[in-house]
Amino acid sequence: MLSYLKVENLAVVEKAELDFSPQLNILTGETGAGKSILIDAIMLLLNKKTPANIVRSGKDKLTVEALFCRNDEEIILKREISKNKSLTYHNGELAPFAQVREKAEALLNIYGQKDHVFLLNTANHQVYLDQFCQHGELLGEVAEKCRQIKALQARWNELRGKNQQARERIDYLNFQLQEIESLNLKQGDETLMQERLKILAAAETILEKSDTLVQDFYQKDHSVYNLLAQDLPAASYLQALFPEFGHFKSEIDRFFNLLPEISAYLNTLAGKVEFNESELNEISEKLSRLEKLKAKHKLTLEQLLEKYEQLRRERDDLLNLNFSLNDTEKEITRALAEYKALQDKLRQNRQLNAKKLSALIVRELALLEMAKARFEVRCEESEPSMENVAETGTDRIEFFFSSNPGQPPGRLKEVASGGELSRLMLVLKSIGGDEAGATFIFDEIDSGIGGKTAEFVGEKLRKISARNQVISISHLPQIARFADRHFLIRKEFRNNQTYSTATILEDDDRVREIARLMAGSAINADVLKAAELLLAKSRP
Q: Which of 325, 375, 447, 519 is most buried (most C-beta within 10 Å)?
């Protein structure tokens, strides 16, 4: 919602501040007073190019500042234009014009004699019809199925691309896998081989030293075992005399009993470390190959084994590509059939509501002095395929229009005039379909109409303003009477200069302005009474 607008030094407007109602705002004033200039001020937030001499004569800079309220959020957009530069601001911070325009476009909907982007963009025709149909859940299902199909297609394209290079890649993977497989290793084997290699390399020394220990500990006549056996009685004698020696006696006994076990173990080493040149060469060669492979890949054995599993999985995936391709094709076919079923349902719903909407708009246009107008919502059917699936369906929706009897409806953007587009836009917006809270600006919506038609336009504006803010310029009392907030734009001449001002009208001032719109300058008591009655009719 546009809550507040401040304009300084724009053409004849020296300074104007407008505090808008969230409902229906009407701007009136004599011709040339500057009503449209205020709309032009808002357009400066949307159009980068500016007319020549837009800055008020004698002033250096014009400023347009707008405050928008959306839920609990306040948004301030500002533009300053001087002779040499143009600056734009978002919430007080200097910002690129594109950013400010994007914000303004999301907040404003302007419909004037030259501003009908909504109707001239055929994509919006489909959006409007779908809003009228109120089948958002169905649209969501169509969109989800479309995304699923596109994801499957991307998967299929990826698989096909891989399949074309699969043979060469499989050969390469097999080579790498064979390198690792040939080592026939698992985690921890490297350490075990290194330890085994040390033992084999020192087998002769190990046997020699273990034999020496066996002889010295147990087998020689003067071995440690035999000497201790001779000394054990002496130790027992000392223990009997000195009980505290008992601890040492126990240790002597334990060591004495341990010597046969040590000797037995040392004797078994011969079988474990017997020199085996073939095994030594085999381990040495395997470790050498392992080192080369580790250096080549810059990986440890554990990392090489992890890489092996990754390579194996990739190879298996490649070997199964044909199966995956076939499975994906079946999934695509199934998803496309499901999409088509949803599309058929969407088409039927659109076609049914297109007829209802067309008849409703024709009936409404007749009340706007366009009784001979024809309006059609056409659905151009297109069967779903992989090439045309879209989140909003494959059919194309477009509005067709004719204002002249005997002339077949043509594409709206090609045959409708600016005034016709304005009235059509008014009808569309009054029917509904938009989310509440938007701001609609209608410039010269009452051009060329009067009487009951003007009354009808006013009622439509009020209906729209029940859900959305409306700002409209008007010359007609039948429309101005519906305003929730009525602004009078005056033009004054002072010191050889023109000034435009904007004032909120209340009570008697509003009655007098309605009277002026009814009778021009010939205002008398009867006209004022008629204006009071007209305003009284507008009150709920």
A: 375
